[in-house]
Amino acid sequence: MNPSRVDFFVDLAYGLLILLAAGLILVAGTDVGVAFGIGALVSYVVHVVWKMARFDPEWMTEEVTEKVEETITEEVTESVEQTVAEEVTEEVTEEVTEKVEQTVTEEVTEEVTEEVTENVERTISEEVGDIIDQLEQVNQRVDRRPRTDQIDEMTRGEGETGDEGDGQ
Q1: d(CA 135, CA 29)
Q2: CB-side exposure of 57: number of CA atoms within 13 Å?
């Protein structure tokens, strides 16, 4: 006989005995059913212990070890993934933010500096040009005005002609 089949039928028999104990509780009374059920459960525990010892005495130890290893592996993996994801996200965000701010600041500063320089140069050129035009106009006016000696001559000449011309 195959040991797996024997174990299956023994387990099935114990299950039926426990079901019979439940039926006895309903039909024959609580005391008889509970006593029979406790007996069936105790014999089932003895059977399980015997089966574990027969197949592999370290079966339970191996099962518990495997379950603990699986649980620890899953928890550690999840924890490490979460921690790494958070830290990497924070560091990358900080670095990208710093680089972007630095680059934007440098580019904007350069553009603003160039634009301001161009505007100042253009404005100064225009202002200097306007001032030069005004100076030329003033110089032309000054050149058209008579000098002091010419004014003296004109005044002398006018005084003489003015006295004679006034003849009144």
Answers
A1: 130
A2: 0
Q: Which two tokens stand for residue 45?
A: 């525990």
Amino acid type, 4 = S
8 A C-beta contact, residue 40 and residue 21: yes
Helix axes 30-55 and 3-27, enclosed angle (nearest 10): 170
Report the pLDDT value the prediction gives residue 168, as an integer from 0 to 100.
Answer: 46
Question: pLDDT at residue 165 above 70?
Answer: no
- 9 is written with which tokens? 């039928």
Alpha-carbon distance of 112 to 118, in angstroms, equals 10
HSE at residue 157, side-chain half, CA atoms within 13 A, is 6
The 10s digit of each residue's pLDDT in 133-149 is: 888 888 887 777 777 77
What per-residue string of b and e applies to 23-61 under the rule 16 or more CB within 10 Å gives b?
A: ebbeeeeeeebeebbeebeeebeeeeeebeeeeeeeeee
